[in-house]
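Tip: read the tokens left to right.
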């Protein structure tokens, strides 16, 4: 996209998106060679912008000097590669920086220039390549699909009573490939609180429950039954988080208390709860390059991701417990029998063929990501076959985050 007019959100032909799906689209655009000068440095700059984007609008401040310092590259290089992202149709101006004193406009003393703000956008080239159907045009376009004739999953019993809306959804056949616009951002960053109230005002406006509804037990964010002891401990943990984690104070106490209900049901300590909130903030740079407007939703999202990871680890451990070692397998015993009868080469001297059990064992420990990254740099296809795409992508992201932190402390 040439020219500054087509690189602004008011005139761009690209649609808006959130940071996660946008980063995946940028990686595809660069790998496809759609810009002759876009390279690994362009991807590093995109990752730095994505780490500072808010999840509601996909906007991030430019912060040229800080970005050049973090990445260890010159200001001129940062400017060039940001321009490549704009020309790819993956970045658009939401606000141009000026020398106007923004502090005076806010009624404050001192001087601060107006910052440049960029918006994450995805060009139509990517959507056409992925087979997406687009409704609308430009910045406010969105993805829709035709679900006629498809089998819909059954609605869980605990959500069947809730009002059902019908927002545009991703194509189930290409899950993980398409970056949706923020039209249905609720799926990615918002948490539905089933049966809970968050403010005293909302609680006072509710009508008196009937006898039937009063017998129904409320459920926490993770689906656990709410108990008085769990809510009491959750209230204590919410106070500790607000006191010791500054970026969470934009949420009300009721919001944090409801998010901490699951921690209370699991009998977490104050140190555990505070450490979890701190780690969640570090993962999204909350309090550093991004000040979330709804901190309780970020913590709730991390709680759900933590539980999903625990379930995957438990399933893998159960599978490993039922797996048969190579020495105890029928193939190994048959090979030993052939060796005894016909003098075949010793099995110990031959490297056995990789099995599904080997892959499960290799994918169980995600803390081993440095070795996974080294293996990937030596042999990409073999690393993906052994560890799987999810663990390899996780190792690449951790390596990139570690490099950013190293540059930040230099």
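Filled-in amino acids:
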């Amino acid at each position: 996209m040439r020219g500054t007019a087509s690189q602004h959100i008011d005139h761009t032909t690209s649609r808006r998106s959130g940071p996660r799906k946008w980063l995946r689209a940028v990686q595809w655009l660069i790998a496809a060679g759609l810009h002759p000068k876009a390279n690994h440095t362009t991807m590093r700059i995109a990752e730095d912008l994505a780490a500072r984007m808010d999840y509601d609008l996909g906007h991030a401040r430019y912060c040229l000097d800080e970005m050049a310092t973090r990445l260890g590259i010159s200001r001129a290089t940062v400017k060039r590669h940001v321009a490549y992202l704009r020309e790819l149709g993956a970045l658009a101006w939401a606000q141009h920086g000026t020398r106007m004193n923004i502090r005076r406009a806010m009624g404050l003393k001192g001087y601060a220039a107006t910052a440049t703000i960029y918006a994450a956008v995805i060009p139509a080239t990517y959507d056409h390549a992925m087979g997406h159907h687009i409704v609308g045009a430009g910045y406010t376009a969105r993805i829709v699909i035709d679900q006629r004739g498809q089998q819909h999953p059954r609605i869980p019993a605990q959500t069947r009573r809730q009002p059902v809306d019908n927002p545009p959804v991703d194509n189930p056949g290409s899950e993980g490939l398409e970056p949706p616009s923020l039209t249905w951002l609720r799926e990615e960053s918002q948490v539905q609180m089933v049966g809970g109230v968050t403010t005293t005002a909302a609680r006072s406006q509710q009508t008196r429950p009937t006898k039937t509804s009063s017998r129904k037990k409320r459920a926490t964010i993770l689906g656990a039954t709410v108990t008085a002891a769990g809510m009491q401990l959750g209230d204590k943990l919410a106070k500790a988080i607000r006191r010791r984690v500054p970026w969470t104070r934009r949420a009300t106490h009721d919001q944090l208390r409801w998010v901490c209900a699951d921690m209370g049901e699991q009998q977490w300590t104050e140190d555990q709860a505070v450490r979890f909130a701190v780690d969640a903030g570090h993962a999204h740079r909350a309090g550093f390059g991004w000040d979330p407007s709804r901190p309780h939703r970020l913590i709730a999202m991390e709680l759900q991701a933590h539980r999903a990871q625990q379930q995957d680890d438990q399933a893998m451990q159960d599978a490993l417990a039922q797996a048969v070692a190579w020495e105890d397998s029928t193939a190994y015993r048959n090979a030993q029998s052939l060796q005894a009868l016909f003098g075949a080469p010793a099995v110990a001297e031959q490297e056995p063929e990789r099995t599904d059990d080997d892959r499960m064992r290799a994918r169980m420990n995600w803390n081993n990501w440095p070795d996974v990254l080294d293996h990937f740099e030596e042999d990409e296809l073999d690393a993906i076959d052994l560890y799987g795409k999810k663990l390899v992508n996780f190792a690449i992201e951790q390596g990139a985050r570690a490099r950013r932190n190293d540059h930040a402390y230099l």
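Strands lie at 15-16, 59-61, 91-95, 98-101, 113-114, 117-122, 133-135, 142-144. The CA atoms of residues 68 and 75 lie 6 Å apart.
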